[in-house]
Amino acid sequence: MIVHNTRNGVERLRVPPDLFETHFEEIHRYIARRLSDDVADDLAADVFLVALRGGYDGVKGEVRPWLYGIATNLVARHRRTEVSRLKALARAAERHVEDREDELLDRVDAARFTGPLAGALAGLKRRDRDVVLLIALSGLTHAEVAEALGIPYGTVASRLNRARKQLRKALKEDVDG
Amino acid sequence: MDELDLISRALPEARPLSPEVVAQARARVATARAPRHRSRAWTWTWAGAAIGTAAVVGVVALVANMAEPAAPILASQAKPNQALYDLADKVEQLKEPTTGRYWSELKREGEGGKTATEDRWVPRVAADDPVLIKRSYKKSCVVHRLDLGGRWPDTGLGEFSMVELGALPSDQAALERKLRGFHKVWYDRGFKDSFEDFLPGAASLLSMPVKPAVRASVLRILAAAPHTRVHGTATDPLGRPGLLVTFAKPGAGGTIGKVAVSYRTFLNPSDGRWLAVVALADKDQRVVSYSALVSGGWVDERPLVPKGCKLKG
After folding, report:
1. Of B119, B276, B300, B302, most Cβ neighbours within 10 A?
2. Tens digit of pLDDT for each residue in B112-164?
3. Chain B residue closest in CA terms to A24
4. Member of which family (chain A) (predicted)?
5. Do B273 and B206 touch, CB atoms closer than 8 A?
6. Which helix (H) or strand (E) element contains residue A120?
7. Do B185 and A106 make contact, defined as CB atoms within 8 angstroms?
8. What's the pTM?
C-alpha cells in the first residue's frame, strides 16, 4: 500500500492519499444503517477528523478496518440511539407482517425479517452487535474485524457465534409464530 | 442465506449520498485545520490516539453555567491588514521567557449558554506527562492517559515536536517554505485546497510556543494572505481589547449544529498571540461559541490533578 508521510519528510508511514474520497461513502453508509442518515452526515466526517489527526500507522494493518474501527467507536457513543432505532424497526415491522408462513430463509423477502432481526440485534450485547454488524454491513473478514476492534481473532469468532445463536433463535421464533 | 446476509438485506438501506453532504463533510474536515475550537482539537487528538495507544492525564470536573457573551463590538476600523504588519513589527522586538518545564494554557470556552475551562500542560520533554484538565458544566471528573511523545497536541496545521516548534525559522521566506511543506502533506492526503486556502491554518502558530520573531513572520504572512481581513479593535468574550481578524475565506466556517458560522480571531495587541476565537452565526452575527485564552506561557511547576478524578483510558 502506498502511504504518505505526514511528518513533513520524517520517519513514519501515515495516512493514504485520497482517504476521504475513497472511503467516505462506505463509512457514511455503515453509520447511516446503524444509526440514521442525519447522524451519519456528521459522524462520518468525525471519523475522518479522528483518522487524519490520529494518523495512520502502517504496522496496524489495512486502512478499511482502521476506519471502520473508528466509526464503530464513534457509533458506540450513540448506543441508546441505535437500540431505540432497532426497537422501533422491530415494532414497525411487526405491524406490517401479515403472512410469513413456511418461508425458507433462502427464498424469503428479507424485509419480512427486519422486525425480528432488529429486535434481536437490539437485545445483543453492544460488543457482540459490533462484530455482527461490522461483518454484515461492511463485509470485513473476521481477521479485519479483529483489527478494527483491536481484539483477538478468537474473540471475534466467539462473539459472532454467540450472536448468531440469538439471531437464529429470534428468526425461528418468528417463523414458528 | 444466513443471518448475516439477511441482516445486510433486511436493515433499511441508507439514502443515496448527496453531493452536498459530501461537500459539507469534506469542508468540515478540511477547515478543521484552522484555529477555532481548541478543546475539540484536543478531543480529537485524544480520540484518535485512543484508537492506538495512550498515556496522558486529563481531568473533567464542574464549572457553573455562564451567559453567552454579546457579539464583539467594533471599536475602530484600521487600515486593512496594515495593523497586522504594525503588530508584527512590535512583536519582533519582544523578549520572552524561553525556559520552563511546561507550556501551560488556561482557556475558557462557551457554547449554547454553557461554559467550560480547559487547563492544559504540555511538557517540554517527552519524559514528562502532558496533562489536560477540563472543567465543564457537568459534575464529572475524569483523568485520561495519552502519550504525545513529546509532540504538540494540535495537529491541524502539521505535526510538531516541541523541539521542532522551537526551531521554526523566523525568516519569513523560510517559514513560508515550511508552510508549503505542511500544505503538501494535506494536499497529498486528499484535501485539494490551494495553498492560499490552506494559509489561514497558519494562524494556529500564534497560539503555539514559538519565538516572537517566528510569530512576527506568521503575522506578516497572514497579513499578505488573500482571505485575511482586519476588522479593527474589538472586545473579546472576556472583555479584553484585541485585534479582530478573519483569516479564512467566506463560507469556510462550516456549521455548529445546523448554524452556519464564520470564525474570527482576536489577537493580543501586546504580543500578537491568539487571544480568542469566536464563531459568529452568518445569519445574525451572534456568538455561537467561543474559546478564549485566559493565560498561557512557560512555567516550571508541575500540574496537579485534582483529587477525586477517575483515571480513564
Report:
1. B276
2. 778 877 777 888 887 777 766 666 655 566 665 566 777 887 777 888 888 88
3. B22
4. Belongs to the sigma-70 factor family. ECF subfamily.
5. yes
6. helix A114-123
7. no
8. 0.55
C-alpha cell at B11: 436493515
Distance CA B130, CA B122 (A): 5
Rounded Cα–Cα distance for residues A135 and A131 (Å): 6
Alpha helix (H) ranges present in chain B?
3-10, 19-31, 38-51, 82-92, 162-166, 172-188, 195-198, 212-224
Please indicate whether, in this complex, the C-beta atoms of B17 and A53 are within 8 angstroms of each other.
no
Q: CA dihedral defined by A125, A126, A132, A137, rounded to 10 degrees?
A: 150
ipTM > 0.85 for the complex: no
Cβ of residue B240 closer than 8 Å to a chain A Cβ: no
- Nearest Cβ partner for A48 among B8, B12, B29: B29
| Measured distance CA(A92)–CA(A112) in Å, rounded | 11
Angstrom distance (rounded) from CA A87 to CA B313: 31
CB-hemisphere CA count at 13 Å for A64?
Answer: 15
Can you give the three-state secondary structure of A24-57, one letter per residue? HHHHHHHHHHHCCHHHHHHHHHHHHHHHHHHCCC
B189 interface with A at CB cutoff 8 Å: yes
Q: CB–CB of B299/B100 below 8 Å?
A: yes
The domains located in chain B, with CATH, are: 3-67 (no CATH), 78-312 (2.50.20)
